[in-house]
Amino acid sequence: MNIIKTSDGFKDTESKYELRFNDPWSSLGPIEFRINSTGAGGIVTSRAIGGYGSLTRRTINSGDQIMEVGAGLGEAVPWLVKRYGQIIPPIVVADPFDYQIAFEIMDWALHEAGIHDKSKRKALREMKERCKVMRSPKVRHFKMNLRDMVVQNPNLHHSADLLLDNHGANFYGDSKTQDFFKTLSKPTTRMIILPES
């Protein structure tokens, strides 16, 4: 890694991952990553659990297969693992985001960059913990987009009990996104797709 300081964060010139700090009140979360400087399509957010609509009010049953598309650094998967990790199978995540690279950049920013702002240090520690959860045995991370996960993993077809997408494939995806959601779904699948159409 070759991490440099930028005007609003840090960038690894090798991976092209750029960490930026958001305003504390941002709905995108306190930290975001931009990948390959591609604009909106390359933004990975860190939304809090409150940004997931009705998720905290949903019933999660023993054995439920939960999937999230484009999880990024959002709080949903870590929140679900903390509360239900003992009774559900590993959560399936489709996201090309590299949690190891993100973890290393945040670790460098926390320990090497001399950040003294308490809120930024807290955000970095929290996002590192989220990365640890995403790389744990409680999560099956498919480092690919929704289309590739569905095409390459027929064993996932019709297996989702709860399907989450918070500004992921449904927001940035193609015309086949809804078809891919249907392929992953059972007749009883509950979905939380944000933004709602």
Write the layout of secondary structure elements.
Blueprint: E1 3-6, E2 9-12, E3 17-21, E4 31-35, E5 43-44, E6 66-69, H1 76-84, E7 91-94, H2 99-111, H3 118-134, E8 139-142, H4 146-152, E9 160-166, H5 169-172, H6 177-184, E10 185-194
Parallel strand pairs: 6-7, 6-9, 7-8, 9-10
Antiparallel strand pairs: 1-2, 2-3, 3-4, 4-5
Helix pairs in contact: 2-3
Average pLDDT, all residues: 90
Provide the helix percentage.
25-40%
Q: What's the number of helices?
A: 6
CATH architecture: 3-Layer(aba) Sandwich
CATH topology: Rossmann fold
The major beta sheet can be summarized as: 5 strands, antiparallel
What is the element string, with H for helices and E for strands?
Answer: EEEEEEHEHHEHEHHE
* Structural class by sheet pairing and helices: alpha/beta
Radius of gyration: 17 Å
Spatial ordering of strands, largest sheet: 1-2-3-4-5
- Dominant shape: globular
Q: What fraction strand? A: 15-25%
The counted number of beta strands is: 10
Indicate the CATH class.
Alpha Beta
Distance between the termini: 40 Å
List the keywords.
alpha/beta; 29% helix; 5-stranded antiparallel beta sheet; 25% strand; 197 residues; 5-stranded parallel beta sheet
